[in-house]
Automatic annotation (TrEMBL):
This is Transcriptional regulator. PANTHER family: GNTR-FAMILY TRANSCRIPTIONAL REGULATOR, HTH-TYPE TRANSCRIPTIONAL REPRESSOR YTRA. Keywords: DNA-binding, Transcription, Transcription regulation. Residues 11-79 form the HTH gntR-type domain. It holds the Pfam family GntR. One of its GO terms (molecular function) is DNA binding. SMART domains: HTH_GNTR. Signal peptide: none annotated. It comes from Rhodococcus rhodnii LMG 5362. The keyword Transcription applies. InterPro entries: Tscrpt_reg_HTH_GntR, WH-like_DNA-bd_sf, WH_DNA-bd_sf. The lineage of its organism: Bacteria, Bacillati, Actinomycetota, Actinomycetes, Mycobacteriales.
Length: 118
């Protein structure tokens, strides 16, 4: 799994790492039971400190998306799958509502992008 981090971004590196993992979960690239790279391996691959990755993993653990076990690494939890399902359901409801009022796919996309930026 390839994670991209922008070292020049104003977004903290740990937050970028957590966001990249959340994105992989949302896209279905990671599923319950999948193992994440060790913190040391991920830190080396994206050129950040070990504690930066550990901070990202701690946030994801606190959100219930991963389980971290000393010596065994981090594993995606079943809760991650239910979170994904919840977001997908919200997206489905949004698209249905938007279609009822005549929005095009392009307009829906722009609306989501604008909302994500704010």
């Amino acid at each position: 799994m390839l994670f991209r981090i922008d070292h020049s971004s104003a977004i903290p590196l740990a937050e970028q790492i957590a966001g990249a993992i959340r994105g992989a979960l949302a896209r279905g690239e990671l599923t319950p039971g999948d193992r994440l790279p060790t913190a040391r391996t991920l830190a080396n691959s994206v050129d950040v400190g070990l504690h930066t990755v550990l901070r990202a993993y701690a946030v994801l653990r606190d959100e219930g998306l991963i389980e971290v076990r000393r010596g065994r690494g981090a594993t995606v939890t079943a809760a991650a799958d239910s979170a994904h399902v919840e977001v997908r359901e919200a997206a489905r409801r949004f698209v249905e509502s938007a279609r009822r009022v005549g929005m095009t796919t392009d307009l829906m996309t722009r609306l989501v992008e604008e909302t994500a930026r704010s």
